[in-house]
Specification:
The complex is a heterodimer of chains A (about 270) and B (about 600). Chain A is an alpha+beta fold. Chain A has ten helices and five strands. A five-stranded antiparallel sheet of chain A has the order 4-3-2-1-5. In chain A, helix 5 runs antiparallel to helix 6. The longest helix of chain A is centred in the middle third of the chain and has 26 residues. Helices cover about 25% and strands about 35% of the residues of chain B. Chain B folds into four domains: about 120 residues, Immunoglobulin-like (Sandwich); about 140 residues, no CATH class; about 130 residues, Immunoglobulin-like (Sandwich); about 110 residues. Chain B is elongated. The longest helix of chain B has 29 residues. In chain B, the strands form ten sheets. In chain B, strands 1-2-4-6-5 form a five-stranded antiparallel sheet, with no helix packed on it. Chain B has 13 helices and 30 strands. The chains are: A alpha+beta (about 270), B alpha+beta (about 600). The interface between A and B is large, with 57 and 35 residues.
């Protein structure tokens, strides 16, 4: 019996060690170069802000430098919410509302609880000419399944694994040590596991797919099909900054679904996906 | 000219714009002949795909026009060419003639979808109502003179000669029902009719008319109202319309009414010049601050806060109590009060007041101009008292205040009165503009990419795996505890091998004894037989019962036989070792045979 208890303790320690496993660090070889790019971007952005009122042209040039520097870091493979936030700021300062919103949305995917990010996204959205309100059902879903929409996928995965480990540890302990007890704790852990597991399962397939997008051009005609020969879907064209979900991609056309539930097709060169 | 006759006379006079769209606009008049005061209903119907705004009805000399409102009907027709929704909007007007003669309803323009249609002019003959001896109305006041703005109790008296013939005499209640309430103009007396039990009293009067004694029912509607303008009292053009019975017959179908009216004609009467004269308050002795207040009032002023800095707002509350018309009562003009303006910044604006019963309160914010101010001076309020027929000016009591110097306000701010430091207690976030960048370089370069690697899958598999192992452990442990035979079986080989090792070191005769004991003991453990009491024959029989191969059983039996022989004969060390080796091989055979 003593040997059984020792093996259980070792198993628990092992599980906890795996559950708290961290993410791989970014490759050190390019880190110095990336740090230089980030510093350049931050300095250029500050310079642009200082010149904004006195010399708008120079300010715009500085913002462009900042945008390109941040973009270089992103292109090097760094996925970071704050980095996307800074890049979005540079875009918005340059009047590129569509790309700005796209970057804010990318950041939101990684850091959905960042209030500073949400505030700037709200401001960027306020600059758009078309305000398409989400349907009531969408808002209700966001409230009901808050964990799905408000907790980053990484955190959901970590929490889910911890709950999963706790669930199995309780079951194992019930079988080997306690012979019953902690049943409610196991049920609670199982509910957490299922909630987070379903949420992760729904999102994981789309994680590396461009499931959403934003218009980056003005006067975009949304058509009924994937071709210029199709009639316009709406009585007016849409402008930069309109966000949508991607339903399908076909050739150079993208089937989009707007927040109010309307759908249509737009050219891929008029959008930025994220 | 009862209702049915009027309906029968209803004709479609004009189909306007006959060429363009004959059925789109129609114009109907309920009668071509009427009496003075008896309304004629005009209907303009427009048929189209949507509602149409009411056309502008022209002014008609000698008649009043009242818009009754629109009504609309819509229906949807489905045909092979598609679904069509049709809406017919009808605008109804009452035209009430006020004089005898021919009444001309001029052409009316109707705009439908940007196209203007025009009806043709229509003439209506207006007859005298002959109401002189059947109906008249008059206004009676509690006194003959009243001041403008002063309340007065007035009574509207409606005199109606009740219908009578040889067999039927209509009651006062029935005659009241003959009054056309909807088409009559009631002025302020309309409120008497709006309660469930109309506030109306009646009495019978007999007066002499043209030498004849005529009996009337007099309906009295009493009302407290306000004299508005100097001159003759105007009750708002009270006109009463009565559908006076012309033909009445005994009822044949109902048990509750003795008769039924089969024909009526409209009879109207209008209140003439009133005997009440409305006087204007005298100009002599009128105070400069008088603002048309008439009645008896008390005036009071309060202030808060009373300890302020220069420029801080002080709220003055002006309270007027008493008897008078509070709805129109205006506050004194504070910016005209010289003693107040001297030391305070006072906005020049009309104050909206709040009426609560016999009280009206006005509020205004003033600001001290300098710290030398130590009181809010008396404020004057003037009114005209109609009972005493003179003006009265009331002054509030001075209100002591403490004003401190303000170091935060510039002179211009005080003068302009634009700063409200004491009222700005909360900050409001603005939505405009971007928030700053993140500048933590390490934080910006930390990759947040999600990867699902072998660690995750290991963790996912480890839980169920360990759980299954735990179940297996538990089952084995339970078996060991609950089944002693199982424990002996599992431990049989180990115990036999251990005893065999001990036997190898003994003398030769002892070796044979111990090997025999080990082999029979092994069988006893495996088959859960009593330990130490199992003989060679028992062991062999049990092996055969277990279905072991005969050669294995034979080797086992032979080995035990040799052991018995060795116990009584000379056995050297080599033979002893051989017996031990063969015994181990025999144990292996038995183990492989799944004993």
């Amino acid at each position: 019996m003593q040997s059984t208890g020792q093996s259980m303790r070792m198993a628990i320690v092992t599980l906890l060690a795996i559950a708290t496993w961290g993410t791989p660090a970014h490759a050190d070889s390019t880190r110095e170069s990336l740090m230089r790019d980030v510093s350049t971007g931050l300095q250029a952005y500050d310079r642009g802000t200082a010149l904004l009122n006195s010399d708008p042209d120079s300010a715009a040039a500085a913002y462009r430098e900042a945008r390109d520097a941040f973009q270089a870091v992103v292109d090097a493979g760094v996925e970071n919410g704050k980095l996307y936030y800074n890049l979005g700021n540079a875009h918005v300062r340059l009047g590129e509302i569509g790309p700005g919103i796209a970057d804010y949305r990318r950041a939101l995917k990684l850091t959905p609880t960042d209030e500073q990010l949400k505030a700037n996204l709200r401001f960027a959205r306020s600059l758009t000419r078309d305000r398409i309100q989400p349907s009531g059902a969408t808002a209700a879903l966001h409230t009901m399944f808050f964990w799905h929409f408000n907790i980053p996928l990484r955190q959901r995965l970590t929490l889910g694994l911890i709950a999963y480990s706790v669930f199995w540890l309780i079951l194992i302990a019930r079988v080997v040590i306690w012979r019953g007890g902690f049943g409610y704790a196991a049920v609670c852990a199982l509910i957490v596991v299922l909630s987070l597991g379903i949420s992760i399962g729904l999102e994981l397939p789309d994680y590396n797919r461009h499931a959403n997008g934003v218009l980056v051009a003005d006067d975009v005609t949304v058509r009924k099909g994937n071709g210029e020969g199709y009639e316009p879907q709406f009585d007016r064209s849409l402008n930069e900054g309109v966000e949508f979900a991607v339903v399908e991609q076909r050739g150079g056309w993208i089937h989009i679904e707007l927040p109010d539930g309307h759908t249509g097709w737009v050219r891929d060169r008029e959008v930025e996906l994220f | 000219m009862n209702g049915r006759c009027a309906l029968g006379l209803t004709i479609v006079l004009v189909f306007a714009s006959a060429v363009a769209s004959a059925a789109d606009v129609s114009f109907n008049v309920s009668a071509r002949e009427t009496y003075v005061g008896a309304p004629v209903t005009v209907e303009i119907s427009v048929k189209g795909e949507s509602d149409v705004a009411a056309p502008q009805f022209p002014t008609i000399a000698g008649a009043d026009v009242r818009y009754l409102g629109p009504s609309s009907q819509s229906f949807t027709s489905i045909s092979p060419s598609g679904t069509v929704r049709n809406v017919t909007t009808t605008h109804r007007y009452n035209v009430i003639p006020r004089k005898v003669g021919t009444l001309i309803i001029p052409a009316i323009e109707v705009v439908v979808d940007g196209v203007t249609y025009e009806t043709a002019a229509t003439s209506i003959r207006v007859l005298k109502s002959d109401a002189d001896d059947l109906l008249f109305v008059k206004l009676v006041g509690e006194r003959d003179t009243v001041y403008a703005g002063e309340p007065i109790n007035v009574t509207l008296e409606i005199w109606i000669a009740p219908f009578r013939n040889r067999t039927i005499s209509m009651s006062a209640k029935d005659m009241w029902q003959s009054i056309d309430k909807n088409n009559s103009e009631w002025g302020p007396f309309i409120e008497n009719l709006q309660s469930r039990q109309p506030n109306v009293q009646y009495r019978n009067e007999t007066i002499d008319v043209d030498g004849k004694s005529v009996e009337y029912v007099v309906y009295s509607l009493k009302r407290r109202t306000w004299a508005e303008r100097p001159g003759k009292f105007d009750a708002g053009g009270v006109t009463i319309v009565v559908n006076y019975p012309v033909q009445v017959q005994k009822s044949r179908f109902t048990v509750f009414r003795r008769y039924e009216i089969t024909r009526t004609r409209p009879v109207t009467a209008t209140v003439g010049d009133s005997s009440i004269t409305v006087l204007e308050p005298p100009t002599e002795g009128r105070p400069a601050g008088y603002r048309d207040a008439v009645g008896q009032f008390n005036f009071d002023v309060s202030a808060a806060p009373t300890e302020v800095s220069v420029g801080d707002p002080i709220t003055l509350t002006l309270t007027v109590r008493g008897r008078g018309r509070f709805e129109t009562l205006r506050a004194p003009t504070l910016s005209d009060q010289e003693s107040l303006v001297e030391n305070f910044r006072v906005p020049n604006e009309e104050l909206p007041g709040v009426v609560e019963g016999n009280t009206k309160k006005f509020r205004q914010t003033i600001r001290a101009k300098h710290d030398a101010v130590n009181a809010i001076p008396p404020i004057e309020f003037s009114y005209f008292d109609p009972r005493r027929e003179r003006y009265v000016t009331q002054r509030s009591r001075p209100i002591p205040i403490t004003v401190k110097e303000s170091s935060k306000l510039s002179v211009s701010q005080v003068v302009e009165g634009t700063t409200e430091l004491s009222t700005r207690k909360t900050l409001t976030l603005t939505d405009r503009g971007l928030l700053a960048n993140y500048e933590d370089v390490d934080g910006l370069l930390t990759s947040q990419t999600l990867t699902v690697g072998w660690q995750t899958w290991s963790l996912l598999g480890a839980g169920p795996g360990i759980f299954l192992m735990g179940i297996a452990l538990r089952l084995r442990r339970d078996k060991l505890v609950g089944d002693s035979g199982f424990a002996r079986r599992k431990a049989a080989r180990g115990r036999a091998l251990a005893l065999m090792t001990g036997a190898s070191g003994s003398s030769n005769g002892t070796v044979a004894d111990q090997v025999a004991a080990v082999l029979t003991g092994y069988v006893a453990d495996k088959c859960n037989l009593p330990a130490g009491a199992t003989t060679r024959a028992d062991a062999v029989r049990r092996l055969r019962e277990q279905g072991l191969a005969e050669d294995v059983v034979a080797r086992f039996d032979e080995l035990l036989d040799e052991c018995e022989s060795a116990r009584y004969g000379a056995v050297d060390a080599t033979e002893g070792e051989d017996i031990a080796r063969r015994a181990r091989a025999c144990l292996d055979d038995l183990e492989r045979s799944k004993l």
